[in-house]
């Protein structure tokens, strides 16, 4: 086990692009089989161009949902690819580029999605950013803190506030948390703190929105092979990425998507709110 290599050394600039990854991740393109769990539903997935967001978009579409995705303008190529899979499942794909660290852009996103989809039933707050290329806490810059907190927390608050106008009884909000909320890495002090805050926000909003019939939950992934990793980790860390989990490997985006399907499905999770579902390769989420 000691000299096992998880992934080859590689490096990209943020936000990272799928096609440049070695190996290219598995988003369930060839494996995910739907069974109508989200028939007729409309979903907005932030960061839906790549990684976990793309796998969720593919799964939702195959379960019968129309899907709008948010992403950064420079990720157009990845967004087009996600849209291709959603349309391939016979569903509508709406592409909404924009930088969510800008308040006006973030607040406008749910309205655009609802307009184009004819409503909104599911909000997946998945967009996120981390920076792990640093030696110590003293190296953390204000620019990094701004980008991490604005992407992971401010944008989540802005998008969720604006989405509430469109979410009716039976709607589901799913936030992307992380194992980092429970086992924070020293190199991810700012990122990990946002993920702990996201868990707290999930419980808090579930309490307020429960009486409206809106459920709020989170998924906490462990190490998952997505563009976020080669674009923000030091290359040598990728060689060991995920090997420290009980299952002994990193996960693929395709392995995380079913947790989002479960929490989105009004039939499967009708009595589930304020929970954090771990998909961690065996690391504890309590
Ligand atoms: P990813 O890079 O494929 O997805 C993140 C997406 O966030 C990007 O594609 C981008 O579109 C979006 N984004 C980032 N900054 C943005 C901004 N300013 N405006 C608009 N969109 C922006 O990587 P991923 O790993 O699939 O990440 C998805 C979520 O999963 C994130 O919240 C991440 O924190 C979380 N997560 C990932 C892992 C992992 O190991 N990959 C583990 C736990 C949690
Ligand atoms: Mg991306």
From TrEMBL:
Alphabetical list of Pfam families matching this protein: adh_short_C2
Keywords, in A-Z order: Oxidoreductase
Stored PANTHER family: NADPH-DEPENDENT ALDEHYDE REDUCTASE 1, CHLOROPLASTIC, NADPH-DEPENDENT ALDEHYDE REDUCTASE-LIKE PROTEIN, CHLOROPLASTIC-RELATED
Protein name: SDR family oxidoreductase
Region (Disordered): 1-35
PROSITE patterns: ADH_SHORT (PS00061)
Presence of the UniProt keyword Oxidoreductase in the record: yes
Molecular functions (GO terms): oxidoreductase activity, acting on CH-OH group of donors
Family named by the database record: Belongs to the short-chain dehydrogenases/reductases (SDR) family.
